[in-house]
Amino acid sequence: MKKAFCLLGLLFVMGGLFGCSAASPGNSGQAATGTAEQSTDASASKTHVDKIKESGQLTMAMSGKYPPFNFVNKNNELDGFDVDIAKEIAKRMGVEAKPVTTEWDAIIAGLLTNKYDMILGSMAITEERQKKVDFVQYYTSGANVVVPNDSAITGKDDLKGVVVGVALGTTYEKKAREFGAEVKTYSSSVDTFTDMSNNRVKAVIADKLIAANAIKEKGFPFKLVGEPLYDEKCGIAVSKDDTALKDELEKILEAMRQDGTYTKISEKWFGIDIR
């Protein structure tokens, strides 16, 4: 009888031990799953700004064909007003600026497929573009008619039927068509000026600051005629609803304006503050 009780007791104790052992792997599995979920949640909660700071670099796209805003200098490096603004923004974020070039007519598509963090290449803010991306304004310019010095064209009203050069994918292309011009497109405004000097186009519509710089730096025998066609607000483009990066850029740009850094960069390239 005693032996029977002892045997039953032993079985009970062993059953309890094995029962705990069997439960342990289940508990361990639950703990591991919880850790994985927490890790996933933490990753999902990171903003684009957090990820930029973790990567240590801020990438921004531009055409590289829009002097003095952005261009490739004699050392084969990207240079210009946009590049200096980009470097200062990156510096204040504590990361390295990494400007890249891409064709202008595909630049928004590149942002939408995450090829870079933002577009900082003197992009005009338009309703059509705002349907695809968000903007942080950083300067104001405008469009102007540019013609050879000996031209009889005095402004937009003289452009009907005239061969007018514009950069492809810009707001100037639409304006030229509205004026009844025969439009010829180019990869950059610089190319339009070159072709006009070779008498392949009779007029150009371009950014007034770009035109003034080209006339001054390249010695083109051109003049700006008529009143500016319209003012144009230019902005840094970010992915739609990327509020974290948009807010960060607005904060940094405002600080640059307040402490004089923006004015210093602008005067370096244009002799005036173009904000």
Jot down its keywords.
275 residues, alpha/beta, D-Maltodextrin-Binding Protein, domain 2, three-stranded antiparallel beta sheet, disordered N terminus
Q: Could you explain how this protein is built, in words?
A:
The protein is α/β, with parallel strands linked by helices and 275 residues long. The chain folds into two domains: 131 residues, Periplasmic binding protein-like II (D-Maltodextrin-Binding Protein, domain 2, 3-Layer(aba) Sandwich); 91 residues, D-Maltodextrin-Binding Protein, domain 2. 47% of the residues lie in helices and 27% in strands. The protein is built from ten helices and eleven strands. The strands form two sheets. An eight-stranded mixed sheet has the order 5-1-6-11-7-10-8-9, with helices on both faces. The longest helix has 43 residues. The radius of gyration is 30 Å and the shape is elongated. The N terminus is likely disordered.
How is this fold's topology laid out?
Layout: H1 2-44, H2 48-55, E1 57-62, E2 65-66, E3 70-72, E4 78-79, H3 81-93, E5 96-101, H4 107-112, E6 118-124, H5 127-130, E7 133-148, E8 163-167, H6 171-178, E9 182-186, H7 189-197, E10 203-207, H8 208-218, E11 222-239, H9 243-258, H10 261-270
Parallel strand pairs: 1-5, 1-6, 8-9, 8-10
Antiparallel strand pairs: 2-3, 3-4, 6-11, 7-10, 7-11
